[in-house]
Design brief:
Shape: globular
Radius of gyration: 25 Å
Helix content: 25-40%
Number of strands: 13
Largest sheet: 4 strands, parallel
Length: 575
């Protein structure tokens, strides 16, 4: 049984402690942020291992599996095990997909054939106008006689969450900072997690409440997430004939992910598609949400299909990122083009007097610490590729449109992704830019960072910088092209080799759940048992001793600084 070993530290004298506290900023930049996230970057160098699930757990008899070793589309993996290997690219392979028959035309009921040993005949496949779903009308008389298991498909949309009224703000902030992925304390200080969260949330609540009051008193993120869930469900029913239930799970406010899982269990869902509502994957967004699922699946493995006995019929797949989806890219380009078309001839003429390019587009992405990227977070690369994809559908620079990229919402003394939006706007003003469309690229629904940070703070800064003709591309919200593409993506996920929560975390360098010993060793679900859980992988997922050491010191320094501020009533840094 593997248990993580901690480095032995020599006792520190009081002068040494104060010396370390005095170097807080340097220490944080050298290692604290990595210690906060526990990213096993060495996993990426492992040999590729493809994991998939045999459907024998759905079968009524051992003989129904066939003899050709066919694989299904969904791999159910509990989150306690560490797995080895990168995730192969998704390839649409009917012989390895979850769905071999969609009885959509008559019963609107999704059924799954127990055996996948029969290869689909292209003559029996019919592509719809979108080219994304396949209907198998007849697979053969032999297969028709095989036992089948009705399955209930669910779709879980994950998002950040937000307070719906100002009275919720402090509680929302408390949940945010009580998350160990936000403030990761060393084990001896873990009991202080809630106290630290309480202190920070109380200090920040007044300013945050004022921000929410400026946009109507609460965040609309739940409203739009519910609308998206409802419309995706409707699109799946109308365009694919699928009877699918959709759910919304929030990370830091109601309805929490755990509540959504309870409803999923109550509804008898046994095939779940997990979709984080973040187009680009980041450890701090999609990764944090998936860790919640990882913990829940591991702690309740018998319920979620991970028990050694394999008693549960539940299985799942994750779509960790979808920034390059053609429908998503087209929907974004359409929204931006509408704003570009709104500039009047007079505004274009005024712009050409001060800048040779008539219109400018600024993609403003949510920032993350630079150390996340250095540790393997794919976010920056995906943002850049996403912007490139959308820009290809917009007029070129020669046609009068120039594209820029910046990052917003940085906090704290550490280095975040550059360039910062609040630096780029004055630079554009000095360059004579008058016509600007600002695009929130990391978000698919309106919330505090679009409605307050961009619409109020950045717009004010832009106007002060001489950018007189401001436009802001709205978030996707309930855009029909976006909604239909989400439905297409879900159907494709049901037809493709799957990716479990743990696989998605490993592939994107998210630190894996480290549960108590009593939870370890009983993971024997499909796709996990005996794969990659060995001494080599154990050594890979451990952080180096010096990283852990400096990270703990930095965290202690942060705690000390917060306590000093609270007790003295005065900030340590700044006016």
């Amino acid at each position: 049984m593997y248990s993580r070993q901690r480095p032995l530290l020599n006792p520190l004298t009081f002068p040494q402690v104060f010396l370390l506290l005095g170097t807080l900023f340097t220490v944080i930049q050298m290692g604290a942020v990595q210690a906060f996230t526990l990213i096993p970057s060495a996993v990426l160098s492992s040999s590729s291992t493809s994991l998939s699930l045999h459907l024998n757990r759905f079968m009524s008899s051992p003989s129904s599996t066939g003899g050709n070793g066919s694989m299904t589309g969904i791999c159910c993996m509990s989150s306690k095990n560490k797995i080895k290997g990168s995730i192969p690219p998704r390839i649409l392979d009917p012989s390895s997909s979850l769905i071999t028959r969609l009885k959509c035309r008559n019963s609107l009921q999704l059924t799954m054939v127990s055996s996948l040993t029969t290869t689909m005949d292209p003559k029996t496949m019919e592509s719809n106008s979108l080219g994304n779903n396949y209907f198998v009308e007849e697979i053969g008389r032999q297969e028709e006689q095989l036992p089948v298991q009705d399955i209930k498909v669910g779709v879980l949309l994950l998002n950040l969450g937000g307070p719906e009224k100002t009275q919720d703000v402090e509680g929302f902030l408390y949940n945010l900072f009580a998350d160990p992925d936000i403030i990761r304390l060393p084990p001896p200080l873990a009991p202080l997690q809630k106290l630290i969260a309480l202190i920070i949330s109380k200090r920040r609540a007044p300013k945050s409440i004022a921000a929410y009051e400026s946009i109507g008193g609460g965040s609309p993120i739940l409203y739009y997430s519910n609308q998206q869930a409802s419309l995706v469900q409707k699109s799946l029913a109308e365009r694919y004939g699928l009877d699918v239930k959709t759910y919304v799970g929030m990370r830091y406010w109601y309805p929490f992910t755990e509540e959504a899982l309870e409803q999923i269990q109550t509804d008898g869902i046994n095939a779940l598609v997990v979709v984080p509502l973040y187009p680009q994957f980041s450890i701090s967004t999609s990764g944090s949400s998936l860790r919640v699922l990882q913990e829940e699946f591991a702690r309740n493995s018998a319920m979620w299909g991970g028990g050694a006995g394999g008693g549960s019929l539940f299985t799942h797949t994750v779509i960790p990122a979808w920034y390059d989806r053609p429908g998503y890219v087209k929907a974004m380009a359409n929204i931006i083009q509408r704003e570009l078309d709104s500039f009047t001839p007079e505004e274009v003429s005024e712009q050409l007097e001060t800048n040779p390019i008539a219109k400018h587009v600024l993609f403003s992405a949510h920032g993350v610490p630079q150390s996340y990227i250095e540790a393997g977070d794919p976010y920056q690369e995906q943002i850049q590729k996403c912007v490139q994809g959308i820009s290809k559908l917009l007029p070129s620079e020669e046609e009068g449109v120039k594209v820029h990229l910046s990052y917003q919402s940085r906090v704290g003394p550490i280095e975040w992704l550059r360039p910062y939006t609040d630096d780029v706007l004055p630079e554009l003003g000095r360059a004579g830019v008058k016509n600007l469309v600002v695009v929130p690229i990391s978000f698919v629904s309106e919330h505090i960072e679009t409605l307050e940070e961009i619409d109020i703070e950045y717009r004010e800064l832009a106007e002060e910088s001489g950018i007189t003709h401001w436009r802001r591309a709205q978030a996707l919200n309930t855009d029909p092209t976006f909604i239909n593409d989400m439905a297409d993506m879900i159907v494709e996920a049901l037809n493709q080799p799957s990716q479990s929560v743990t696989e998605a975390c490993v592939a994107n360098n998210v630190g894996l759940v480290d549960l108590e010993d009593e939870f370890k060793g009983d993971i024997n679900s499909a796709g996990v048992g005996g794969v990659g859980y060995n001494d080599e992988l154990q050594s890979q997922v451990r952080l180096k001793a010096d990283e852990r050491f400096y990270g703990r010191i930095a965290i202690m320094a942060v705690i000390t600084a917060v306590l000093i501020e609270v007790l003295s009533g005065r900030p340590i840094f700044g006016p």
